[in-house]
From TrEMBL:
InterPro entries reported in the protein's UniProt record: LPCAT1-like, Plipid/glycerol_acylTrfase
GO BP, sorted A to Z: phospholipid biosynthetic process
GO cellular component, one term: membrane
Main location: membrane
GO molecular function annotations of the record: O-acyltransferase activity
Transferase recorded as keyword: yes
Entry keywords, A to Z: Acyltransferase, Lipid biosynthesis, Lipid metabolism, Membrane, Phospholipid biosynthesis, Phospholipid metabolism, Transferase, Transmembrane, Transmembrane helix
Name of this protein: Putative lysophospholipid acyltransferase LPEAT1
Length: 384
């Protein structure tokens, strides 16, 4: 038995025993001799190099096609003409499928539940999913950086939320601009003056429902409300950003059910994850797309409640627990403990206690806000 973590078992156990930290400990941090054989012998380095080269070639080819589609186009602040968008989405979808095939994703399970509705339910008033026309925000669980390829393959090219770091790479910078992606700045000092990703997201959602854009709706915004990736055994707290406008959303679920290696980007070095993924004989993947989640009156007036209910819906579909007391701050601490070795075993309890206090205050604030909103709603009903 081998391990990707160098820390002693008691340190790993401390992380696994805490409900907020265990969400980010890699599923297969211990791996067998069979997995070691794949890593170092076959497919091994040669298989990794071939697959990586093939994926990079497809990515470059796709980039050139997108440059051709958007040739001489400059009005990036508004949705592109319909023919350009249709061409770019179809190109994105099929290039992503070829790229995934090169990475070992040979068999993919995709189920669109909006097209396979039970006859006993009268849902015909709800629009079915159409990747070329859908304007509703896409929300679901976040597993790994491969989610971008898998979602674009299954759902066309949505308007992503990208980390500011990817803007340094020329091809990624162009694609972010072409699909009107929203940029998330972890370091607020890097953000342009007056820029707020929350406000930009709310504006994008409202833009999709603007009657003026009915004939040319913008790309559906893709949001991972968890804010970070976890190990796939839990769904962590959904943040309220995309739910603030109170508009319907299109939930989806992603699953990478590998038996020997987990493709989840949790607490694992990025190169180790890429290498492990590309040295598997094959990588299973499944995606489910659901009917619109239409908020009720309470959810529209309380975005935190709306976010939590959608998070629980996604968790129920994946058959995993919904953990309200977890998030990015816990993910960072697990990385500091297990990968970067910045926190010693004697410091773990005190660091966790600090985060628990912050988390508890946040939960209490959300609860108080919910009570206040409910009281205001009741007063309004009484007046009416």
């Amino acid at each position: 038995m081998f391990s990707i973590y160098k820390q002693p078992p008691e340190v790993i156990k401390k992380c696994l025993d805490h409900p907020g930290l265990r969400c980010y400990v890699h599923q297969h941090y211990n791996y067998s001799l069979y997995e070691a054989f794949k890593l170092y012998i076959f497919p091994g380095p040669l298989g990794f190099a071939i697959r990586l080269a093939a994926m990079l070639i497809i990515y470059s080819f796709h980039f050139l096609l997108q440059k051709l589609i958007f040739l001489n186009y400059k009005d990036w602040d508004h949705p592109a003409p319909h023919w350009r968008r249709r061409a770019s989405q179809i190109t994105m979808r099929y290039c992503c499928r070829v790229c995934m095939w090169c990475g070992g994703f040979y068999w993919i399970k995709r189920i669109d539940h909006s097209k396979e509705r039970p006859k006993s339910k009268n849902w015909e008033d709800q629009p079915r999913f159409n990747y070329l026309e859908d304007k509703y925000p896409l929300v679901g669980n976040h597993c790994t950086f491969m989610d971008v390829l898998t979602i674009c393959m299954c759902m066309g090219a949505p308007s992503l939320m990208g980390h500011s770091g990817v803007k340094k790479e020329y091809t990624a910078r162009f694609l972010l601009k072409a699909f009107r992606c929203l940029v998330v700045y972890r370091n607020k000092q890097e953000a342009p003056e007056g820029y707020s990703v929350s406000k930009a997201l709310i504006d994008r959602v409202e833009e999709a429902f603007d009657p003026k854009e009915e004939q040319n709706p913008p790309y559906a915004p893709l949001v991972f409300p968890e804010g970070t990736t976890s190990n796939g055994l839990y769904i962590t707290r959904f943040h309220k950003g995309v739910f603030v406008p109170g508009r319907p959303v299109r939930p989806f679920t992603l699953k990478y059910p590998g038996k020997h290696f987990s493709n989840h980007y949790d607490t694992i070095p990025v190169m180790r994850l890429i290498y492990g993924m590309l040295t598997q004989f094959w990588n299973p993947f499944e995606m489910h797309i659901y009917d619109l989640y239409i908020p009720d009156e309470d959810e529209r007036s309380n975005p935190d409640l709306y976010a939590a209910n959608v998070g629980k819906f996604v968790a129920e579909k994946l058959d995993v627990p919904y953990i309200d007391g977890s998030g990015y701050i816990y993910a960072k601490l697990v990385g500091d403990i297990l990968i970067d070795n910045k926190v010693s075993i004697d410091q773990i309890d005190s660091e966790v206690a600090k985060l628990d206090l912050i988390q508890e205050r946040g939960k209490q604030d959300r609860k108080d806000n919910g009570i206040e909103l409910k009281e205001q709603q009741d007063k309004l009903k009484t007046l009416v």
